[in-house]
Amino acid sequence: MTSVAEPEVGKARTRKEDARLITGRTRWTDNLVLAGMQHISMVRSPYASARITGAHVEAARAMPGVSAVYTGADLDAEQSGLPCGWPINADDTPPRHVFAVDTVRFAGEIVAVVVARTAVAARDAADAVEIDYEPLTPVLDLESALSEGSPLVHAEMGSNKWAFFPFDAAAAGSGGDATVAIAAAEADPDQIVVKRRFRQQRLIPAFMEPRSVVVDPTSEQLTVWSSTQVPHILKTMMSVTLGLSESKLRVIAPDVGGGFGGKLQVTPEEVLSVLVSRRLGRPVKWTETRSESLVSAHHGRDQIQDITIAAKRDGTITALRAELIADMGAYFGLFTPAVPVFGCFIFPAIYKIPAYLFTCTDVMTNKTPTDAYRGAGRPEATFAIERIVDELAVELGREPLELREQNWIKNTEFPYTNAGGLTYDSGNYEAATEKAKEIFDYDGLRAEQRRRREAKDPVQLGIGISTFTEMCGLAPSRLLGALGAGAGGWEHASVRMLATGKVEVVTGSSPHGQGHETAWSQIAADQLGVPFEDIEVLHGDTQSSPKGLDTYGSRSLPVGGIALVKACEKVVAKAKRVAAHLLEASEDDVEFDAGRFSFAAPTPGCRSRKSRSPPSCRTISRRVWNRRWTPMPPSIRRTSLFHMAPISVPPRSTPKPAGSAFASTFVWTTWAKWSIR
Amino acid sequence: MRITVTVDGTSYTDDVEPRTLLVHYLREQVGKTGTVIGCDTSNCGACTVHLNGQSVKSCSVLAVQADAADITTIEGLAKDGQLHPVQQAFHTHHALQCGYCTPGMIMQSIDLLTENPDPSEEAVRHGLEGNLCRCTGYQNIVRAVQDAAGKVRAAQTPAEQPAGSQS
Question: Which of A92, A331, A387, A539 is close enough to A96 for a disulfide, judged by CB 3.0 to 4.6 Å?
Answer without folding.
Answer: A331
